[in-house]
Specification:
With about 425 residues, the protein is an alpha/beta fold. Helix content is about 40%, strand content about 10%. The strands form two sheets. A seven-stranded parallel sheet has the order 3-4-2-1-9-10-11, with helices on both faces.
Length: about 425
């Protein structure tokens, strides 16, 4: 699955074909695509077509459970319009959904009520920013046989027209990406099989290597963060790196930030939403209960730890984001995409160049969908800067692109002067 949603018309066609062919598996996939659009607060346009599909589904006599799910999902698209369930054996569903008056609203209340314990679970997993925690490193004690059903964390936060989006790309060795993919496959098996599966010793050895290899300081991002620590910014940072150094630098610099699903953002005017596309080496998931947590100790070198909720083992929640078989977290990508397409100013640090990776594909998609873009700063080699300058100017001729910055230090002074002159709301 691509890390960004397909178009609304494509989803309409998918569902129409599924109903006509009575392919309930394809129809279920279509409902998943609709829910993905709710995750990014998609602005719905084709109301009449959705209403027509509802009538077609009624005539097709869907299986009971699928019919209930279909009606509930379409009702969210149509907002407050009343949808009846004509099949006698199907009970009426309460329509508690709210219409989206803009693409920046929170998903509907009804969607949130599907998992009433979700919010409490997320709160339990959040780490205090000032708290330095040490993880108990252990790979020998047995996993608990009694495990709880995994709960997903709705990490897509309420979107806003963030003024600045900073995109940082870290070059990861191909061998490391392969090891991340193998590691994630083992972790997914533990999650899917409720810990009935336990990986071999080599899996833990690879994880230990990854913790060491991926946790090197991001020098460019650290320099950028230190440069903005005295400037109040409301915006977003998107990164393809895994290192804990960005989190540690923001904590030490007193920068207010949140991470979708791991660290709650406050609603102040100077809060940065940090979205690591592939996760962080110090972000953890518990295969037993599904809870997530972020470790913020200043000296982080842990491999695994202990879940505070169920006492099970927790592991780094990281994904391969660059291979052709990338299995990235959709919610992270949706949050990142929201931030990019709604921002007025982009800062691109070391963007990938002709890498044919998911990260480069993500950037191309963001360029095509950018709705408010005004200025772009590119910190990269001349050839890379020219490559992205051409892409952006071709799609958005009125956008001012500055790509003459080979380093962060050369960029910072120019950036502050221009943005203060432009009176960008993010810079106070």
């Amino acid at each position: 699955m691509a890390p960004y949603p397909e178009t609304e018309t494509m989803t309409l066609k998918r569902i129409e074909v599924a109903i006509k062919k009575r392919d309930w598996s394809l129809l279920s996939e279509g409902l998943v695509k609709i829910r993905e659009k709710f995750d990014i607060n998609h602005r719905w346009e084709h109301y009449e077509q959705w209403r027509e599909l509802l009538l077609q589904a009624e005539e097709a006599k869907l299986p009971d459970e699928l019919w209930r799910s279909f009606c509930s999902t379409i009702s969210k698209i149509l907002g407050n319009d009343v949808i009846t369930l004509p099949q006698e054996q199907t009970p009426k569903l309460p329509l508690e959904n709210r219409a989206f008056s803009s693409p920046y609203q929170q998903p509907s209340i009804a969607a949130e009520k599907q998992e009433p314990q979700q919010e409490a679970q997320q709160q339990l997993s959040l780490s205090e920013p000032e708290k330095k925690e040490e993880i108990i490193i252990s790979t020998s004690f047995p996993l608990k046989e009694e495990v709880a059903e995994q709960k997903s964390i709705n990490s897509v936060e309420k979107s806003s027209r963030e003024s600045i989006a900073v995109f940082y790309n870290e070059d990861i060795e191909e061998n490391d990406m392969s090891l991340i993919s193998s590691y994630r496959n083992g972790l997914n098996l533990m999650i899917e099989k409720n810990n009935d599966y336990f990986p071999q010793k080599s899996w833990f050895e690879n994880l230990s290597y990854l913790v060491s290899s991926l946790n090197k300081p991001n020098s460019q991002m650290i320099e950028f963060l230190q440069g903005i620590k005295d400037v109040k910014i409301k915006g977003a940072i998107i990164s393809s790196g895994y290192s804990s150094s960005v989190v540690q630098t923001m904590l030490k610099s007193g920068i207010n930030f949140g991470i979708p699903g791991f660290r709650e953002s406050d609603k102040s005017e100077n809060c940065i939403k940090y979205t690591p596309l592939g996760g962080l080496i110090n972000s953890y998931i518990c295969p037993s209960c599904g809870s997530k947590s972020l470790k913020t100790g200043s000296h982080f070198d842990a491999v695994v730890g202990c879940c505070k909720k169920c006492a099970g083992m927790i592991y780094p929640d990281i994904y391969d984001i660059n291979s052709s078989l990338a299995t990235s977290s959709p919610k992270m990508w949706y949050n990142a995409l929201n931030s990019m397409i709604n921002s007025k100013v982009w800062v691109m640090i070391n963007p990938p160049y002709h890498s044919k990776t998911q990260v480069e594909e993500f950037l191309s998609y963001a360029v095509n969908e950018a709705a408010n873009l005004q200025r772009v700063y590119i910190i990269a080699k001349a050839e890379t800067g020219s490559y992205y300058r051409y892409q952006i100017e071709e799609k958005h001729p009125s956008v001012v692109v500055k790509d003459q910055y080979p380093s962060v230090s050369m960029f910072m002074g120019d950036f502050a002067n221009i943005e203060f002159e432009q009176k960008t709301p993010a810079l106070i």
